[in-house]
Amino acid sequence: MTGPCALALVGLALLGLAQPSLSQTAHECQALTDHYLEKHHKEAVPYTGSNMVYFLHVPRTAGRTFHSCLLKTVTHPARRCPKAYDHLRLSNMSMPNCYLLSSHDDFSVVSMLPPDVAVISQLRDPLDRFISAYEFAIEVAARSLRRPKNYRKKVGRIATEDVWPWSYLIPFFQEDMQPKVAAAQAIAQPEEGRWIEVEQDGERWYFNKALNVSRWNLTEEEAAAGGGVLPLLDPYDNQLVMSLKDFAQHPIAAELLHNGATFQVLGITNYSHWGDAGAFRSCLKSYDSLRDQMLRVAQERVRRFSHVGTTDRLFESAASALVSLGYSTSSPAYSGGDDDVAGSGGVRRRAGEGGGGGQGGRGGAGGRAGSGLAAQMQLQAKLVREARQRLQNAQRELADGIKGSLTAEQVDVLRGRVEALRKSLIQAQDKLASLRDQLPQELGGRGQAADKGSEAVDNVFAAQGARRRLMGAEQEVEQQVEQQPLSGGQEEELEAGGQQRRLLATNKISVATSDAFGNPLDLDFKRIPNSNVGNEFMRCASRAQQRAATRREQSLAALCTADGRQVSFSKAARKRIPADVLDLIRSYNTLDTALHRVGLGLLDARLVEQKEQGLYADMPKLPADDAQDSGLGARRANRVVKPRDERVGDELR
Ligand SMILES: *[C@@H]1O[C@H](CO)[C@@H](O)[C@H](O)[C@H]1NC(C)=O
Ligand SMILES: *[C@@H]1O[C@H](CO)[C@@H](O)[C@H](O)[C@H]1NC(C)=O
Ligand SMILES: *[C@@H]1O[C@H](CO)[C@@H](O)[C@H](O)[C@H]1NC(C)=O
Ligand SMILES: *[C@@H]1O[C@H](CO)[C@@H](O)[C@H](O)[C@H]1NC(C)=O
User: Fold this and answer.
1) Does 278 contact ligand 3 (Cβ within 6 A)?
2) How far apart are the C-alpha atoms of 421 and 274, rounded to whole Å?
3) For a Cys staple, 116 with which of 51, 304, 305, 514, CB 3.0–4.6 Å?
4) Alpha-carbon gap, residue 301 to 359, rounded angstroms
5) DSSP letters of 421-452?
6) pTM of the entire predicted model
7) Distance between CA atoms of 461 and 457, rounded to whole angstroms?
8) Rounded-to-5 percentages of helix, strand, coil across the chain
9) 42, 90, 91, 94, best to mutate for ligand 1 pocket (most atoms within 8 Å of CB)
10) What are the pLDDT digits (tens) for 452-510?
11) Ligand 3 site, residue 306, Cβ cutoff 6 A
12) Which pLDDT belongs to residue 437?
C-alpha cells in the first residue's frame, strides 16, 4: 500500500501563501491537512468474495435503486446487513457479522468498518446531481403543504426527512415555500377564471381552472380575458419556491451539495465522523493548492474501489458491478425484506424451522401488536436521532478542544464522552433494529419506492408457498466451488440447471456460500424462482422509476398558484434552464466534475477488461408488458385533463 505514504509526500506549499480575508489561517489549514493525511488513510481493499462490501451512497445517484434492486437482490439474505444500519449513522462496525452495507455516510465511516472492507460507489455528472437534488428536496418538502396540522409521521420506517442531507434540505425548502405558496394562493381570481398554459408529457395546451376546461387553442376573446393568458410556470424560477439559481448560490448548497461526491469520498462532508471536517472544507475553499491535492487524494481513492459506475449509464454500470462482485446478470436473485438480515434466517442450520421460522409473525394479521410496536419504534427512532446529534456535537467539541488550549486531561475527558456517546448510539440503533425485526410486514419498511418493489416480489414468492426447491443442480455447483476453490488464471464454465454459469476464476472472486458465522447458506432461501438478478434488477428499477414519477406528481400538485399553475419538473423544462445558471452550478462543482471524469474512465476501463474476459453481459431487455406496472397510470389523479377534441392545425410547438 503506497497510497498514504505517497500522499503525505505531496508538497503543500500552504504557508506563506498570501490570500486575503481567510476564515482559516494558513497555519490552521496546514495543521488540519497534516491531521487529515495522518489519520484518514485507511483505503478500500479489492473485493475477494469473502470481505464486506460497503456501498458509499452519494445522494441522487440512483443509489437506492442500485442498492435495493441490484446489490440486495444478488446478495443472499443471510449475508446482508440489517436494514437499520443502511439508514442510520454508522458507528463502530468492526464486527458487524454481515457483508453488504450501504449508507449515506461519507468515507470517514470506513475507518469504523472491518479492516478489509471493499468499497463501491456510483457517481453522477454534478450538474445533473445538483438539479436532481433541488427537485427532490422541493418535491418532498411540498408534501408538507397538504398535511393536516396534527400530522404525525408514518411510523415504522425511516423517513426521507431523517436521512442526511435531506434532514437539512427538506426543512429548508419547507420553510421557504410555505409563506410563498400561501401568498400565491391568496390572490383573488376573476369569476370567469384565468387561462393558463400547461405542459404535460411534452404537450402544451390551455386550461382554465375556474371553468375546468382545457383547450388546445384559445379564441382572441378568451386569450384577452381576465388580463390575458398566464404563461407556463418555470419550475426552476417562480414565485412559489426559491429558484434553482438562488439555491445554487445559497450557503446551504455549498454546505451540503456542491462538490458533495468528492467530499463524501474524502470523508469530509457535513455528516463526517471527523469533527474538523467543516473547518477543513473551508480550507479547501481558501487554498487552490490544497483543493488540487485533495482532489488527487479522492481520485486515488476511487481507483481502489471495486466498482465505480455512473448514473447516466445505470444499466451498464449495474451489469459491470455484478461482474466486479463475482456475479453475472444470470446469477440467482433473492427477494428482499426487513428481516432478511444476517443471523435471522437463510442458513442451513435453520432450514428445519421452515419458511416462517424465527421471523416474528411476518405475514400474519398482527395489526394491534404491530401498532404498539410501531409507537415504540417511533420513539426509538427519535432517541436514535438525538443520540446521533449528541455524538456529532461531542465529536465537534473534541475537535475544537484538541485545537484549543485544553489540557491533555480535559481532552481525555472529552474523548471519553465521545466514546460513551458512541456506545449509546449503538445501543439505540440496535434496539431500533430489534424492534423493526419484530414488526409485521404490513408496517415495516414501506414507503421508499425501490424497497416496495422487492417486497412485492417477496409476497408473490410467499404466496407461492415459499422455499421451493429449485435448480438443485446449480446448488451443487455452488458447493463444488466451496470445496475446491479454483486457482487463478483459468476460467471455467459449467452447465447447471439449463443455465450457463460462469465461475469467476480470473479475478479470484468466488461467490460466498456461508454466512458470517460460518454456517453454510441455504441457497434456496428467498430465492426468486425462474428468474435471475438481471431480470429482477430491470423489473425493480422500472417499478422504482414509475413509482417515483407518480409520487413526484402527487407531491408537487400542492405546489401551485391560485390560478392552477403547478411546479412541474420535466426533461423539457430542464432543457430551458438558462445557460448562465448551468454554468454557475458547474463553477461550484469543479472537484466533482473532475472526479466524475475519473469515474467514467474507470468504468470504461473495467468494461473493456470484463468484455475481454468474456464475463460481461448487458442487462436483459424487459418485455414491453413487464415494463408497464398496471394501476400506476390510473393513480395520476392530479393531472390537468387534456383537451378532449383532437388537436387541430399546428404541430407541437
Ligand atoms: C470497535 O469495537 C471493537 C470490538 O467491539 C473494539 O475492539 C475497537 O476498539 C472499537 N473501535 C473503535 C474505534 O471504537
Ligand atoms: C374537471 O373536469 C374533468 C373532466 O373533464 C373531471 O374529471 C374533473 O372531476 C373536473 N374537476 C372538477 C374540480 O370539477
Ligand atoms: C450541516 O449543515 C447544516 C445546514 O447548513 C448545519 O445546520 C449543520 O450545523 C451542519 N453540521 C455540521 C456538523 O457542520
Ligand atoms: C391554433 O393556433 C395555431 C397557432 O398557435 C394556429 O396555427 C392554428 O390554426 C390554430 N388552430 C385553430 C383550430 O384555431
Assistant:
1) yes
2) 15
3) 51
4) 40
5) HHHHHHHHHHHHHHHHHHS-GGGSS-SSHHHH
6) 0.74
7) 6
8) 50, 10, 40
9) 94
10) 333 333 332 222 222 222 222 222 222 222 323 323 222 222 222 222 223 333 456 77
11) no
12) 64
Establish whether residue 639 lines the binding site of ligand 2, counting it when its CB lies within 6 angstroms of any ligand atom.
no
Report which bound ligand comes closest to the CA of 168: 3
Q: State in Å: Cα 237 to ligand 4 middle.
A: 29
**Domains of the chain: which residue ranges?**
1-24+363-483
Q: For strands 100-103 and 53-56, give the pairing.
A: parallel
Which amino acid would we find at residue 185? Q
Q: Is there a contact between 444 and 157 (Cβ–Cβ < 8 Å)? A: yes
Tell whether omega for the bond before 165 is within 30 degrees of 0, i.e. cis: yes
* Alpha-carbon distances of 75 from 18, 97, 327, 535, 639, rounded to whole Å: 53, 14, 10, 15, 39
* C-alpha 148 – ligand 2 centre gap (Å): 24
* Nearest listed ligand to the Cα of residue 420: 1
Q: Across-strand partners of 514? A: 520
Q: Give the ligand 2 atom nearest the CA of 641.
A: 5
Alpha-carbon torsion 644, 647, 651, 653, what sign? Answer: negative
Ligand 1 midpoint to CA 63 (Å): 29
Q: Which ligand is nearest to the CA of 97?
A: 1
- Tracing cell 488550549 back to the chain, one arrives at 405
User: Residue 422 CA: which ligand 1 atom is closest?
Assistant: 14
**pLDDT tens by residue, 14-46:** 433 444 444 568 888 999 999 999 887 789 999
DSSP character string of 130-165? HHHHHHHHHHHHHHGGG--TT--PPSSS--GGGSTT
Question: What nine digits make up the cell of 205?
Answer: 395546451
pLDDT tens profile 119-154: 999 999 999 999 999 999 999 999 999 877 667 666
Predicted confidence at residue 6, as pLDDT, reads 37
